[in-house]
């Protein structure tokens, strides 16, 4: 049996929102916390608009991206990520 491509069970919007929340809270970014996993799990939704803005920015591939991939597929994938309303609990 051949395994398929890796895929996430978490919606792209949630994944990006969690990264933004973690960045804002921890020493790896702008915050002071050593570890913010539990807090991020509670507040990531507050960063969903920022996450959507990031995804919208990615709609246009760079020249380097176009050199190795298909722009139409990329556009469909990013559009699907933006429209994905499957937010994990």
Model description:
This protein has 89 residues and is mainly alpha-helical. It has helices at 12-25, 37-43, 48-57, 63-68, 71-83. Helix 1 (12-25) crosses helix 2 (37-43) and helix 1 crosses helix 3. The longest helix is centred in the N-terminal third of the chain and has 14 residues, at 12-25.
What is this structure, in a nutshell?
The protein has 89 residues and is mostly helical. 56% of the residues lie in helices and 0% in strands. The chain has helices at 12-25, 37-43, 48-57, 63-68, 71-83.
Which secondary structure elements does this structure contain, and how are they paired or packed?
Elements: H1 12-25, H2 37-43, H3 48-57, H4 63-68, H5 71-83
Helix pairs in contact: 1-2, 1-3
**What series of H and E elements makes up the topology?**
HHHHH
Largest beta-sheet details: none
Strand segment tally: 0
Q: In terms of structural class, how would the helical and strand content be classed?
A: mainly alpha
Calculate the mean pLDDT score and round it.
Answer: 88
Q: How many structural domains are formed by the residues?
A: 1
| Large-scale geometry | elongated
Terminal Cα span:
31 Å
CA-atom Rg in angstroms:
15 Å
**β-strand amount:** under 5%
Keywords:
mainly alpha
